[in-house]
Amino acid sequence: MNTQVQQQLLERQKEAIDTFISVQGSLFSGFEKLVDLNLKAIKSTIAEAADQTQQVAELKDPQEATSFVAAIAQPNAEKAVAYSQDVYAIMNDVSKELIKLTEEQVAESQKKMEEALEQFAKNAPTGSESAIALLKSSFATASNAYDSINKAAKQAAEVAQNNLAAATNATLKATENATKVAKTAAKTATTAAAK
Q: How far apart are CA 195 and CA 191, in angstroms?
């Protein structure tokens, strides 16, 4: 095997290892962020549960209990939605990093393939022009297909993000409406009990 081929193989192996390390770094960073988010959420939930348990112990009648539950429903729903959004943001960031790495790899591969095709075309024997043209055409078609798939994937991610935002708004509105109904019912029950 000639030295140039050996050098190219070593270079490709180094590039593959560097890419693997970058991917692992992105995945680990996302995992680390998720662990941190979950620890904060657990700590906050435990503190809130202790506080709410104390408040429940001080309630005197069912109307107060209904008012209490209604009062904590909206903030709890907002916290759940915020947590979901944080998880989505972390996953989205990791996904973007991986897509960026992939795009860089594909761009580099395309560049090297174009260079190889040009080198092959320069050294090709006479009469092989149509075969070279076919190779170049096939490469261009593959590149265009990749670009189309990449654009479609980005559009799908955008649609998913818009759907998450719509679902979040719907959840918050539903919780807000349920809280209002529960508060009204509690006031009505308190007024009826006082008469």
A: 7
Return phi, psi of residue 59, to 5°: -70, 145
Give tens-digit pLDDT for 14-31. 888 888 888 888 889 999
Residue 183: closest CA among 75, 78, 63: 63
Q: Is the pTM of this model over 0.90?
A: no
What is the reported pLDDT for 156?
80
In whole angstroms, how large is the CA radius of gyration of the chain?
30
Three-state SS string over the chain comes to: CCHHHHHHHHHHHHHHHHHHHHHHHHHHHHHHHHHHHHHHHHHHHHHHHHHHHHHHHCCCCHHHHHHHHHHHHHHHHHHHHHHHHHHHHHHHHHHHHHHHHHHHHHHHHHHHHHHHHHHHHHHCCCCCHHHHHHHHHHHHHHHHHHHHHHHHHHHHHHHHHHHHHHHHHHHHHHHHHHHHHHHHHHHHHHHHHHC
Q: Are 143 and 27 in contact (CB under 8 A)?
A: no
Place of tokens 């090297």: 112
Question: Tokens 């897509």 label which residue?
Answer: 99
